[in-house]
Amino acid sequence: MIILILLGIVVAVVVWAIATYNRLIGLRNQVLNGWRQIDVQLKRRHDLIPNLVNTVRGAMEFERDTLTQVMEARARAVSATGPADAGRKEGELSQALGRLFAVAENYPTLKANENVKMLQEELTSTENKVGFARQFYNDISTRFNTSQQTFPSNIFASMLGFKPAELFEVTDAAERQVPAVDLSMRK
Amino acid sequence: MVVFVAFLAFLGYGFDRFYLGGGSAPFPIGSVFALGIGSVSALSSYYAGDRAVLLSTGAIPTERAIAAASEEDRLKLRQLENVVDEMSIAAGLPRPKVYVIPDADPNAFATGRDPDHASVAVTKGLLDALNREELQAVVAHELSHVRNLDIRLMTVIAAMVGAAALIADWTGRGLLRSESGGSSRGRDRGKNSDGLGIILLVIWLAAVVVAPLIGQALAMMVSRRREYLADASGAELTRNPLALARALTKIDAAESPTAAIKRGTAHLCIADPLGRVIGLHEGKWANLMASHPPMKNRIAALNEMGFQ
Question: Partner of A104 at 20 to 30 A CA spacing, among A137, A163, B74, B162?
Fold first, then answer.
């Protein structure tokens, strides 16, 4: 009888361990996928920018500097290495783009141009997608970390070598102070 | 939900005890049988329902709508596609199919059996009335219905409402027949039982009479709770509850009902497409049969989230 009870407990523990392990693996894959999703969106942004610059170049003859700054910031962001470096350079690119759109406000013909509007919408959306991809990454990482660190799965998680995922943060103190650039086309 | 199952079990138990005469069986065979029939009808709507709904509302896929649209509309439609993309990234869901409904009243709904087979449809009126941020909030609300599996839940509930109605229907016919045909097993049962049995019989008969009504009311109760949930998890996706509050205010201000959307999909819309009038007076009875909570309460709840 006692043997049966013990056997039951062992089976229950094993089933629980398998379930926990599978849940953690599932979460870890989601975290990895979330991280790649950020890269996908950043890549999309890099691809869109030359398009935008070419479209507005004709109308913005006198704003060479702004345009060059955007292209340079883009080149730096594309060649960035490592998450911290990329984070900072992508931030600079966002700022350069923000300046470009602020300057573009002074060109009525440009503002009325359907192509420019469409490109602006695409860029706004890409900016949002980068933001939401980071948000999702942080959400899912937090869930992953929490399920690793709460009792009783914490005993098990560290035994199997699960490590908490790093959250995405604003690394640059200066960037934190810069007000968010509003690219949306509110009338 | 638990109340619902209990109610159905009680109906089935009474059915077995008083009608089939199998009072000794602890298992509600009658309700299981009715639930089986209800499930078959629900399953067919589960697999084909989204197509039927989209067809009945005249929804057009955005890709096709963009090809035919004017310059300005094209921008709006592209914006809709982008916003759906953004929100599915934020929710970590596969991108649903996007449709636009040629209807001037602002409304939106989601359908499909699971996140892999989901569709989001938005009326033309909504695109015209809302700005980008508000549109994003509405899409987040709809994607929350998808993520919380509300579509599946409401299908299950539709099956149970159907089963309750079936039992009520069968009993009604049975009683009529036994009226003309003399004594039936069910009546003998009732006579031979003790006092408790008679009381049970009376309660059960009363329950049967109002079963379709109660079934509907319970279903709507679940639907209303899921609306609050979708509002809250939508705000979690955008991190911007005030945009949804503004969008709801604008949607509420539009008077006309959404002609293109029929009753079957009401619980998946962002705002009740039929009962605008019900939303206005807030009596207990009006609330009981509404698929959506009063707009005022939803907006208040969102504003609270925003100001905390």
Answer: B74
B79 to chain A, minimum CA–CA distance in Å? 7
Does the complex come out with an ipTM higher than 0.95? no
What separation, in Å, do the N-terminal and C-terminal C-alpha atoms of chain A show? 77
Instruction: Evaluate whether residue A122 is within a structural domain.
Output: yes
Domain assignment present for A10: no
Is A172 among the domain residues? yes
Chain A positions touching B91 (Cβ under 8 A) are: 136
Q: For residues B20 and A161, which has the higher predicted lDDT (pLDDT)?
A: A161
Q: Kindly report the CATH number that applies to the domain delimited by B49-151+223-307.
A: 3.30.2010.10
Neighbours of B227 (CB within 10 A): 25
Query: Which pTM was predicted?
Result: 0.78
List the one residue out of B95, B108, B96, B98 whose CA is nearest residue B63: B98
- Structural domain including A86 reads 17-177
CB atoms within 10 A of CB B181: 8
Q: Read off the pLDDT of residues A60-108 as tens digits, 9 standing for 90 and up.
A: 666 778 888 888 889 988 887 776 777 788 888 888 888 887 887 777 7
3-state DSSP call for residue A17?
A: helix
E-assigned strands of chain B? 60-61, 97-101, 108-111, 119-123
B92 CB near a chain A CB, below 8 Å?
Answer: yes
What residues contact residue B118 under an 8 Å CB cut-off, 6+ apart? B50, B93, B94, B96, B97, B110, B111, B112, B146, B151
Q: Which of B142, B179, B236, B304 is catalytic?
A: B142
| B50, B114 Cβ separation under 8 angstroms | no
Q: How many CB atoms lie within 10 A of CB A147?
A: 16
For B104, list phi and psi in degrees, rounded to 5: -80, -15
B142 is catalytic: yes
What residues in A contact B76, CB-CB < 8 Å? none
How many domains are contained in chain A? Answer: 1
